[in-house]
Structures are given as C-alpha cells and as structure tokens.
Here is the input.
Amino acid sequence: MSRPGSSDARAAVDAVWRMESARIVGALARYTGDFELAEDLAQEAVAAALVSWAVDGVPAEPTGWLLTTGRRRAIDSFRRRGVRDERYALLARDLDEAAPGPDALFDPDAIDDDVLALMFVSCHPLLSNDARIALTLRVVGGLTTSEIAKAFLVPVPTIQARITRAKKTLSAARVPFVIPEPGDRAARLGSVLQVVYLIFTEGSSASSGDEWMRTDLAGEARRLARSLVALQPEPEVFGLLALLELTSARFPSRLDADGNAVLLEDQDRGLWDRAAIRRGRAALGHAVAAGRGLGYYGLQASIAECHAVAPSVAETDWSRIVVLYDALGRLRPSPIIELNRAVAVAMASGPLEALSLVDDLAARGGIAGSHLVPTVRGELLARLGRTNDARVEWQRALALCSNGAERTVLERKISSGTIS
Amino acid sequence: MLIWRATDESMAAMMNTDFNEMLESMGRFNDELIRAGVLLAAEGLDDPSQGVVVDFTGETPEVTDGPYGETKELFNGFYIIDVASIQEAVEWVKRAPMTVGSKAEIRRVPSIDEFPQDNEWVQKERAWREQTGQL
Here is the structure.
C-alpha cells in the first residue's frame, strides 16, 4: 500500500486505467456480452477506485481490484434486472460461479482477442468518425473524458454525449462483442486503421508543449498502432505504423521558435528523430516483405521514407515519389493526391510539366473552396519567372485561406514575389 | 528510461532462480509492454564480475576488475519506454518481475533538440545520430 491521498489516488487510477482499460472493458464485455454495460461497469469501478484508493492507498494489485469491482457490479446489475427477468438472474449466477477470482476474468488466451474485439467494436462503421475516435481513445487508449475534450478543444459534455450516443448506437444495433469474421475482417480493420490515423493527424496538427504531461494524441496513435501490430500483424497495419513513425520523426523541426510551421524544404533535418525513422523503416520493411503491394498507409509511409532518408530537398528521390503518388492516386483517387503528385513532378521534371497537371486539375474544379490549388499554381508560375501571374494566383489563394500562419506565408510571397 | 539496479541481495536471489523461469517471467513482462505499444528498446547487461571499473577518485583514473565494490547497487540494464506520464512508467515498473532487493530508476530521456543547436559539439553529435540512427 502506498501513501493515501486523493491526488495520489487520482494519478494512480489514471495511470492504471490508461494501461488496462482495454483489457478491463474487454474482459467485462466478454463476460457480460454487453459492450455498453461493460463500459459503464468499468467507469463505475474507476469512480469507486478514486474514493477507495484515496482512503486505503493504492492496492497491491490495482488491475485485479478494478476487475473484481467491475465484476461485482455486473453481478449486482444482473441481479437487479433478474427480479423481473429470469435470464439476468442466470447471467448473474453464471458470472458469480464462472469467475471466482479477478484472475479468472483475465483469461490469458482471451486477452488479445478481447482487446482486438474492443478495437473493432469501438471503430465500428455504424459510428461517425468523431464517435469512433472518442470511444477508441476512452476504452482502448484509456484517456479520461476531460483529456479527450482537452485534446480536441471541445467541452467535456460534448465528449460525454458522443461516447454515450456511440454506446447507445452499438446497443440498439445489437453489435456483438466479437472479432469480425474473416470475410468481413479486412474492411473492419480498415476502419480501425482509419481511426488510429485520424487520431494521429489530429495530434500532429497540435502544437508542441510539455510532452511529459500533455494529452499527446500523436503519441497515443503510435501506441495504438504498435499495439495493433502486435495483435494483428497484417501488412497494412505495419504500413500505418511506419507512416506514423516516419511522420513523427519530423515533428522536432516542424515549428520555428515562434511556433510557426516550417516548410519541409526549410526544416533542419538534423533535428529529425533518427530512432523513429529507424523504427518506421523497419515497420515498412515488414509491410513490403508481405509481397502483396502496399496499401493506402504503406504508400504514404514510403513517401515519408523518401523524405526521411534524403539529406536535402534537392537530393530527394522525387521520381520515386511521383511513382508512389501515382499508385496512391489509383488506390484512392483524390484531388489532394493529384496536387501533391504535381508538386513532386515539379521537383522531378520541372515546373512546366507540373503546371499543366495543376491547370488540368483547376479546369476540373480544383479542390472546392480550398486555397491549395492556387497556392501551388502560384509557386509554379513564380518558378517559371511569371511573377505577376503568380501574384494573381496567390491573391486568389489568400481570399480562400482562413489559417493565420498560412495567410502570413501567402502575404509574404505576394509582397516579395519569390518562392519562399 | 527504466534503469534496473541490482543489489547483492537481488543478485543472490537471482542465482537461486531457475533460468528458464526467469526468462519466462521477463518474457511475459516484455510481451505486455510490446502489446501495449510501449516498449521501444531494451538491453540487459552481462555479469558484473566480467566488467571493469575505472575510478576517478584519485589523481589518475584507477582501473580495477569486477563489479563496483563500494556501492551496493549495480546498473544492470535499461528499457526505453514511450508512455504518457511518469505515473504510467511507475505502474509499469511495479509489474516488473524483479527479484527482492532490486531497484529501478525512472528517468526522462531528453531529445537532442532540447540542447543549444548552435553549439558545435551538439551539431557533431546530431550528425553522428543522423548517420547511425541513434535515439
């Protein structure tokens, strides 16, 4: 037992919950067959721990404590309902007998399946992206509602409502707590990967801060991806992990001292995290070795790898990046990918060839409401020496751009007429 | 970084532990860290009696064989883990299957970008990290 105190208890509960939420909710969901109930029971156990641990100190087996409390509450809940429904009375009895101790809930052969099933359920395609993200961060990542709210800059009740609605949706649709059948698995895994990717992109757009304390969504996504690699070592899972590691590697150089975004060409590559690059390349190696061709995340990871290994923008293998964007565009056609490909073409073959690609994209309507096409078009025109035309494009981009930092960059370009 | 420290007491306890049992309990702990997506690197060290100690107490460094005798605590290995808080690191360490008398120290690994970047030696170190893929 450690020293009692409410702040100690809070810190211990938070830490244990972060480590064990997936296994606790997973085990309870398997036992009760009811994901919504399992999540409620786990939250009740956490609330009970906050009270009890503050008085009695942190127990020697904190996870066992939470599980036992959760199981007891499950039995109570079934007994209450069993007064009216014999089915629940039987469930209560089964749960009482089947799980004599906390360890019985932790079936070592079932833990991986429990956690995996939990990931599949909390990323269920029935739910909106916002709901999937909130639910995954809470039950799989073990974040508190207020941590999630802080990370997304929304009020706590918004996140609470999202999680409650998500659980109701899953309940109403009678979504079973199981790993999807093989025929369904690839599509469902895609949904899990997408949620991890969205958590990461949300985190990577946040500014840096006290990393030791901050709700670090990018870090959370990396841990989820590593965990997923251990549980479901599919090539595309490795591809996603590679993408997250290789993108994170550039984080130390992406902002200047004033917190402004630094363009790739101006980044100090010496600051890139070499260990993250090594981990990312190792993961990408696994994705490639499967020999089935890279997927959406694997291809993006390969592009990130081209940047990671290049000593400078000029020495980057842009031809390879063009080919990778080709493949990405075939897999998921999108004007953003076309635009990125055009930028790579400009680097590989010169601005003139790229300009015709961007003109073609603009003729088809560009990217509705976005400043990106005129921004890039302006760059290419400037590189061709057509400064006045470039200014016109940048003015057009400025009218569409609402991001303060990007507006500053555009304004600077307009007044100087040069590329950077 | 989790720094594992052995003491005379824990070394003695370890000698009495079945090697396969020790491999299994450490293996399970490592596996948990891997499955949680937390473990980045880990190294254990060889028997301290095979090591050499260089002592800077006197005018010139004094070299002796074997473990560092004056202190009871021996650096025995390290893990690098990626966690959200120091509390989480504490909870992980509490689960490690360490023999009685062992100690663990938890320290944050600063990133190279926290050092003054205009310093020549910091720049040299960065170049080396870049070439070799170090942390």
User: Anything to note?
Assistant: The interface with chain A takes residues 34-38, 40-41, 82, 84-88, 90-92, 108, 111-113, 117, 123, 126-127, 129-130, 132-135 of chain B (CB under 8 Å).
